[in-house]
Amino acid sequence: MSLNVQAIPVASPLRKKRLDFEDTPDSEPSKPKHPRLGPVSGLTPCLQPLVRSPCAVEQDSRVLQIGPYILLEPREGGRCYRAVHRHTEAEYSCKVYPARSYPETIAPYGHLSPHPNVAQVAEVIQGDQNVYVFFQPGGGDMHSHVRRCKRLPEREAAGLFRQMAEAVAHCHDHGVILRDLKLRKFLFVDRESTKLVLENLEDACLLSGPDDSLSDKHGCPAYVGPEILSSKNSYSGKAADVWSLGVVLYTMLVGRYPFQDTEPAMLFSKIRRGVFSIPDGLSPKARCLIRCLLRKTPAERLTAREILLHPWLASGGAASEDSCTNPSGEQGMEQVVPDTWSQKDEEEEEEEDLHS
Q: Which DSSP category does 118 fall into?
């Protein structure tokens, strides 16, 4: 159906600038502060500056109405909005997609049954140029939570990481490869910050059969697997997702990425070597699980379903001196840097954008 986009007056305290999606072409992305990722062609950079919303110099007391919803402040450079239903006053998150790319973007949702750790589509409204997809609302994201806490206690990390692994396993079971997994993809849906959902599937790939081979280079540099950087042909999409989960777990427990460098070429070199260090303060079971995920050879990594059977998750992250089952060989060790993100890392992650 054709959507009539209306700008409606609201009370003056909101003072929001009108947002005209249907008549305004997409603005050109801003020039990134950080260098593009030259060494790997086609790899989507994540360290790009967000497009800032225009300053409300013109104090226009109108906001955009999409069907029964009112869109409020923009996020992610105007591709995501906080939305409120006019009649129920319930809050939602609205993602805006070009109409031409909508069928491919929404396809993975049609193959997934509902899952408590995957955000559900509440409603879809189609306009002349854009499609507006409304999701259940989420609170803060895991990236901000870990950065604020520096690193998480093992019991807390185990409870949250299990939910992440559950979401990934559910997607893999239904032939959906996520491709761009990272901490920021997971949102809290409760005030206690204990329940997580995978925010959306907009970067996901839907498999046509049991073969999970992919050839495109897609992902955030800090989370990308070595086979994606080194392979000239195809790679296992599921194994690449598991590597990203390993980076997620390491960062939650240690407070920094397992591989990091200010220069993309050096970062990729470290990831290709697969050499990382684990601080001695972590329990043997936690260290074991990290190594089982960050194995350089994709076929040697655990699957998403196998992650859920690991002793560290079975014990709820309880500290123990017992050795875990099936530990991998020791990885090479580098000098351990302080277990926090540097200020520069924080600034770069603040500017993260997947679709620059």
A: B
Q: Which residue in the block uniquely carries the two structure tokens 């761009």?
A: 180
List pLDDT tens digits, range 6-47: 444 433 333 333 333 333 434 444 444 444 444 444 444 453
Q: How far apart (Å, rounded) are the C-alpha atoms in residues 350 and 155?
A: 27
Q: Tell me the C-alpha to C-alpha distance, in Å, between residue 9 and each of 83, 161, 165, 197.
A: 16, 44, 44, 34
59-69 tens-digit pLDDT: 344 568 899 99
> Which domains are assigned to the chain?
6-30+61-135 (3.30.200.20), 142-350 (1.10.510.10)
Question: Can you tell me whether residue 160 is helix, strand or coil?
Answer: helix
- Give whole-number Cα distances, 148 to 3, 255, 327, 341, 353, in Å: 41, 10, 31, 10, 20
Known catalytic residues are 180
Q: Specify the pLDDT at position 211.
A: 94
* Residue 43, burial from CB neighbour count under 10 angstroms (0-12, 13-18, 19+): buried
Q: Coil, strand, or helix at residue 83?
A: strand
Model confidence pLDDT, tens digit, residues 313-326: 998 877 644 444 44
What tokens does 158 get? 């185990």
Query: Rounded to whole angstroms, what are the CA distances from 266 to 38, 222, 226, 259, 271?
Result: 12, 11, 13, 10, 9
Residues in contact with 306: Cβ distance below 8 Å, sequence separation at least 6, in sequence order: none
Distance, in Å, from the CA atom of 335 to the CA atom of 323, rounded to the nearest integer, reads 24
277-289, pLDDT tens digit by residue?
999 999 999 999 9
Three-state helix/strand/coil letters over 227-252:
HHHHCCCCEEHHHHHHHHHHHHHHHH
Closest CA to 3 of 87, 86, 96: 96
What SS3 state is found at 98?
A: strand
Helix (H, G, I), strand (E, B) or coil at 134: strand
